[in-house]
Amino acid sequence: MKRNPGKKRKQQLIQVWSYDQIVKALPYLLEVLRSLRENYLAMRFANHHSAKISQRKGRPDRSAYIAKQEAQMDSEAASLKYNQDVAEFESMGMFVVSPENGIVAIPFIEEEQLAWFILELYHEDYVVGWRFQSDPLETRRAILPKHKGAA
Fold first, then answer.
1. What is the mean pLDDT of the chain?
2. Does residue 72 belong to any structural domain of this protein?
3. Which pTM does this prediction carry?
4. 111: domain range?
């Protein structure tokens, strides 16, 4: 299928961050990341609990129906909160890598290429490294003084 030459492709703009901007926003980012992780785990627990109730053998009684309804409501509430946290990161141009481990990728430009700072909730330095867009997700390059704004 050929593209219509008269139509322009939509370009997606990505908000890029500097290391200094991340450091200044770190208290807020960590709070949203904690919330995201807690809501993700709550959502997983509620989904698991709901599935467990559904798998019970035998004819469900009144208390089973109530428990299933409550589990579904808990799952929906946690899912809504989790999706709000993901949307918060996406509105800042950030990408949630692992909600369970509290890992987020923050875009910046390195050597005229898209790159990502890696923010980890449970690491003592929080911003643990960076990777190019083309690198595997596990790649962590060292943050150098040039990234921190030092000459």
1. 87
2. yes
3. 0.80
4. 19-132
